[in-house]
Amino acid sequence: MFENVTIYAIDNRERRSVAQTYLPTLKQLQYLVALNDAGHFGRAAEACFVTQSTLSAGIRELETLIGVVLVERTRRVVRFTPLGERIVEKARRVLREADELGDLARAAGRPLSGEMRMSVIPTIAPFLLPRILPRLREQYPDLKLYLREETSGQACEALNHGRTDCVLLALPFSCGDVESAQLFDDRLFVAFRNGEMDPTASIHPDAIDETRLLMLEDGHCLKDHALAACNRPELRAEATMLGTSLHTMVQMVDNGLGVTMLPEMAVDAGILEHTSVTARPLDAANASRHIALVWRKASPRERDFRLLADVLSAARS
């Protein structure tokens, strides 16, 4: 009788040991998610700061551990199996939870300290960050803020997948299940070459020639904010969407190719200096975008994000 109990106890420990041995590691899951994001072994390895052979070996070890093929490898294409795609989504959640373990510890310590990853959209980053970063460094020297410049859609995807902690965004924009702190309103301006429009007044949407309107290409929420404020369907249909940055748009306007829309922060930052371009406020309802800091709901670092929002808002005023 006692012998049977002893054998059972040893057997149970062995089963626990075997189960623990075959658990995937966080590093393997990171490699798998990075490959899914990049679609290329070399780029995924760069994102993980390892060699391509190390990343490939890690994923093969993961496949061996769980006994299934997750990635179909050819010379030209990296293709995830249906089961591989499902495991990637699970892996994202596991990695996000693991990140939040560290967040819990940091939240219990000093405010705004340690590492924080913030995505910033291109129509905000070059105009606002130079004003706020010096103050942030001075007030919170223990904060290591890593910045990513991404379009609105990319930034929200990174937030929801746990690749970034918060986003400096212009609302309205659908960003998933998030919390936000509004910082300030940013008025919209119409920019035109000197002499093309009345420089003494604000510009009503009806005064904009739809055949000469130049806008940022798809992916930039400023385009949607400006077109929504104008409330002219023909503008959306006729506008030329080709600019990759606001500086590019200003140069095209300066060369007589058309007119465009700019946010007030860009005008205040001197984007029109050394050009023959004038900007006047857009005379329309809701002719502004709402600058906000956005983070995942129930994040353990909510206190830090709200404090950061206060700093960003104060630096703007």
The top level CATH class name of the largest domain = Alpha Beta
Helix content: 40-55%
CATH topology of the largest domain: D-Maltodextrin-Binding Protein, domain 2
Order of helices and strands: HHHHEEHEHEHEEEHHEHEHEEH
Q: On the 0-100 scale, what is the average pLDDT?
A: 85
**Termini separation:** 79 Å
- Biggest beta sheet summary: 9 strands, mixed
Catalogue the unreliable spans. Answer: 1-20
The portion of residues forming beta strands comes to 15-25%
Secondary-structure-derived class: alpha/beta
Count of discrete domains:
2
Radius of gyration: 25 Å
Number of helices: 12
Apparent shape: globular
Question: Can you walk through the features of this model?
Answer:
The chain has helices at residues 2-21, 26-38, 41-48, 52-66, 82-108, 125-139, 152-160, 221-230, 233-238, 246-254, 264-268, 302-316, and strands at residues 71-73, 78-80, 114-120, 143-149, 166-171, 178-193, 213-216, 240-243, 259-263, 277-281, 288-296. The chain is of the alpha/beta class. The protein has two domains: 2-101, Orthogonal Bundle (Arc Repressor Mutant, subunit A); 113-317, D-Maltodextrin-Binding Protein, domain 2 (3-Layer(aba) Sandwich), CATH 3.40.190. Strands 3, 4, 5, 6, 7, 8, 9, 10 and 11 form a nine-stranded mixed β-sheet that branches. A two-stranded antiparallel sheet has the order 1-2. The longest helix has 27 residues, at 82-108.
